[in-house]
Amino acid sequence: MLDRAHNLPALPPEIARRRTFAIISHPDAGKTTLTEKFLLYGGAIQMAGQVRAKGEARRTRSDFMQMEKDRGISVSASAMSFEFGDYWFNLVDTPGHSDFSEDTYRTLTAVDAAVMVIDGAKGVESQTQKLFEVCRLRDLPILTFCNKMDRESRDVFDIIDEIQENLAIDVTPASWPIGIGRDFLGAYDMLHDRLELMDRTDRNTVAESIKIEGLDDPKLAEHIPAPLLEKLREDVEMARELLPPFSRQDFLDGSLTPIWFGSAINSFGVQELMKGIGEFGPEPQVRPAEPRAVSADETKVSGFVFKVQANMDPKHRDRVAFVRLCSGHFKRGMKLTHVRSKKPMAISNPVMFLASDRELTEEAWAGDIIGIPNHGQLRIGDALTEGEMLRFSGIPSFAPELLQSVRSTDPMKGKHLEKALMQFAEEGAAKVFKPMIGSGFIVGVVGALQFEVLASRIELEYGIPVRFEPSQFTSARWITGPQDKLNAFMNVNKSHMATDHDGDTVYLTRLKWDIDRVERDQPDLTLSATKEML
Ligand code: G4P
């Protein structure tokens, strides 16, 4: 087994073989296609095309909403588990659209590594950059997949330079492409001295892999035309001179990313990337928590909720809390302590998402993502333990950047609307504020598209037609301080005060200037744009 990072003792084998990661990319770079190939080689689906198949029966979790199909964006995050060789992969899907950055941020708290997909013709795009910054905050190890090499793409050194410069991370080639566009033949595996040749006749055929003895091996000339071979030799020599060699430690620290060149649609380079995730990727890592960090090999089970999805299956009307297990060996039926309420909770029907179907799971290990159906007890940030009062840190809730008031166009459905809104608030899909004065609700989101998604979900899942309207407010801040000072402030500013779905006090305002003024004039009160979810 490979050395563990940070010189910790070896993990139990079942935990050590877990790889929990997300794919980050700009829309259209090929995330869906790559996911599909992962599932194909993980034996989770039988045929390519299933992930994006339009038929109801074949929809996957990451694709379950009509909106999503219409717009080609991923608005829900979910997790899929599958085996690959000796490894157990947990792939956590991140919503691709920038409007869902908060959701994405929380998803990335649940993984140990990320695969960054870039389009070989486009390089580092805006959304890749943003998501990368989020990974950087947590020093997540990143593996890079440069996709669409079967098309005309940019010069390889240019692409690598751009990543190094724009993202301030060292890049080391794990493979080197041979030819580009129409002439793309395959890649030279720089870490294992192998030649991988793409099969153009069948998109689902795995590349032929030929073991060679370095770049002077005469076998190369049997497969690569002379001009391309010459260029390959020159390029690889230059790459070895100019670019850092692979170092597992630098990769695990998040300061170096290995890059593979491939074509997801042609199944090329995908298995090499998967092997890379297995071979080098981090095992389940130590998780920050209060009052102490939690190591994956602790025998007691612990985990935290990073995502709640309501109404995944309209027939069941349940909610599923996605829990990242941080330590121990979980077994179905276990009684865990729900730390926020200090109440025991029997986890009798946990599910794991094995590609297109969710299945009851008998056991799970640190690193795994399990779904726990519940009726609303479990919220984002909640910890589950075997009794210890742990709180996993670093799962923030952001102040919304856009506020609108919402009302039902059917006046008979007001009460139901409140229930629906609270569910979405608990799911983390929106902030819902109840103003101290007046009726109705103010909904806050990070990106405008979320209003449309919410309106469509409220109608679809609860049968309530709603209308979002501009609100007089534009900003929200959580406000805390000594109770007497807070009460005095609330009395004077009644028309600006509201509570969120947890009952925490929120100050709503029109002007950034108001926030500055309160901060200046009320030194005992704290205004905050984020709140830790617990
Ligand atoms: P996303 O999830 O990151 O948004 O990207 P997705 O996989 O949906 O891929 C975006 C488009 O790029 C798709 O084409 C897909 O077929 C294509 N694509 C993915 N990988 C490769 C590749 O290696 N080479 C080439 N040439 N194309 C690739 P589309 O026309 O938008 O969709 P579709 O009609 O093919 O489904």
From TrEMBL:
Any one GO cellular component localisation term in the record: cytosol
KW Cytoplasm (keyword) present: yes
Annotated residues for binding of GTP: 25-32, 93-97, 147-150
GO function terms (MF aspect): GTP binding; GTPase activity; guanosine tetraphosphate binding; translation release factor activity, codon nonspecific; translation release factor activity, codon specific
Task performed by this protein: Increases the formation of ribosomal termination complexes and stimulates activities of RF-1 and RF-2. It binds guanine nucleotides and has strong preference for UGA stop codons. It may interact directly with the ribosome. The stimulation of RF-1 and RF-2 is significantly reduced by GTP and GDP, but not by GMP.
Annotated keywords: Cytoplasm, GTP-binding, Nucleotide-binding, Protein biosynthesis
Protein name from the UniProt record: Peptide chain release factor 3
HAMAP family, sorted: Rel_fac_3 (MF_00072)
